[in-house]
Structures are given as C-alpha cells and as structure tokens.
Design a protein that fits this description.
mainly alpha
C-alpha cells in the first residue's frame, strides 16, 4: 500500500512539473514594467491664498513657497485666479514686519515682468512703494530699484514715470559710495538708461554731476559702462542735454580713455568723446 501511494505521489509530482514547464514555454515573458514614481498631488493655491494672513504663524514659510512658485508663468496664473496675489498685496499694506515685506517685495519683483499682473496688483500699491523709497534708511531700496528696473523696461514705461522721479536723487546720494554701494548705483543708472529709451524726461543736473564724479573717480568697468551709456543716450534725447556740463563731461570721458583698461568701456568712451567733439564743432 505504501508503495502504491509513493507511485501515485510520484505521478502527481511529474504531472505538476510538466504543467509548470509547459506553462513557462507557452506563456510569453512579460517585460518588467518601469516603476512609476508616486504622483505628487497638485497644490491647491486656494488653500495657500487663505493662509496668506498676518495671524498665520507660518506666514513666512507660505510666502517663501509662493515666491518660488511665482517664477513660473503657469503658477502665476494659478496664484492670480486663487487670490494669492490679492492677499499678498493686502498683507503688504497691513504689515510693517521687515521679513514679511521683504518677501512681498521679492514676489512683486518676480511678477513685475508680467504686464497683466503689474496693472492688476502692482500699480495700486506703488504709492506705498514710493513711501518706502523716500525713506533714507529703507531696507527695501535694492528690491524697489529691481522692481523699477522692470517697470521702466516695459513697453509703456511712461505710465509709471511719476514713480521714477526720485531716481536722480538716489544716484546722487550714493555716488560717493559707488564702490561700497555698487548694486544701488548700477540699478539707479539702469533705470535712468531705461528712461532715456522710453523718452521720459528727468532732472539731468543731478545726473550730470553724479556722472562727472563717477567718470573721474570710479574704477568699476560695470559702473563706467552704464555711465557712458547714459551720457550717450542723453546726447541723443531731445530736451535732456545741458550744455553747461559739457566741458566737464568731456574731461571725465578723457579720464576714462586714459585710465580704464576695459575694452568695452574704451570703445564706448571713444564713441561718446567723438559725439561730444561734433557737438562742440
């Protein structure tokens, strides 16, 4: 009996093995499927918008995240529709907290290349920005100047010309500290250059005096290049040139030609010098 049982068991094992082998041959091998990364859930900007309030203890974390997202056009659209930008502007107006206002300013700079968002959100708060700009001790000056660089680069920059009126004074204030405050000086010069391109009139007396000082004393090729660009543009702008400063400008350009090692500066200085010579003749 035990022998019969062993025979039956052996036969069953044989059949099972044959089925396994036959199945392995008959069934095509399936290529391994790539492992899919778990999909990230879409961010609900409506929820984030409701979190943009001063009473939220995590407000700076929320603002930092929104700042990162504001660099992308599609995310700007989502933030616009969800009310994020509206609440950020309200927060900016209501808060005097430096960290919060710095983050708000950075978001404003980020969206200031989008004309639709400029008119919808930034234009209504520019009077508050001007107030910060007029504060000599303002911690936001570099950010405000970055914002105004973008606004002055817009096709219709003239619409914001009123807000650029203090730029000559800012340039004058930091001219004697050009080395230490190069970021501010470069930004002010860039805005003035953009204003000449947009044919926006401004007080050239302060600008000429600052330019003369920089031509004589500044050794930064970046600053000198912008000063020379500004002078060249002013020469081509009707209503901006003042003959009373011409002789000193010529002397300053001459200093650059004899002292500056930068080829681009020398080329532009030579062009400006020739233009001034033609004016004198």
């Amino acid at each position: 009996e035990s022998c019969v049982r062993r025979c039956i068991l052996a036969e069953l094992c044989k059949q099972w093995y044959q089925r396994r082998v036959r199945g392995a041959v008959e069934e095509p091998l399936q290529e391994p499927q790539p492992v899919k990364e778990p999909s990230k859930s879409a961010v609900d900007f409506t929820v984030l918008a409701s979190a943009v309030r001063f009473s939220n203890p995590q407000i700076t974390t929320v603002l930092r995240y929104l700042l990162e997202q504001s660099a992308f056009l599609e995310k700007q659209r989502l933030m616009d529709r969800s009310g994020c930008f509206t609440n950020i502007c309200v927060l900016f107006s209501e808060s005097s907290n430096t960290v919060i206002r710095v983050l708000c300013y950075k978001i404003f700079v980020s969206i200031s290349t989008n004309p639709a968002l400029v008119y919808r959100y930034l234009e209504p708060i520019l009077s508050e920005v001007d107030s910060d700009l007029s504060n000599r001790e303002s911690e936001y000056l570099p950010l405000i100047l970055s914002l105004y660089i973008n606004l002055s680069s817009m096709e219709d920059a003239k619409a914001f010309s009123y807000h650029f009126r203090t730029i000559p004074q800012i340039l004058s204030r930091f001219t004697h500290e050009a080395t230490e405050q190069s970021e501010i000086v470069l930004s002010a010069l860039k805005i003035l250059i953009n204003m000449t391109v947009a044919e926006i009139l401004f007080d050239t007396s302060l600008v000429f005096m600052s330019s003369i000082h920089l031509l004589h004393s500044c050794e930064s090729p970046a600053i000198l290049l912008r000063v020379l660009t500004l002078i060249r543009n002013i020469m081509d702008c009707e209503g901006l040139w003042e003959d009373v400063f011409e002789e000193e400008i010529v002397k300053g350009v001459g200093v650059v030609l004899t002292r500056c090692p930068d080829e681009q500066c020398l080329e532009l200085a030579n062009h400006v010098y020739q233009g001034l010579s033609v004016r004198k003749d």
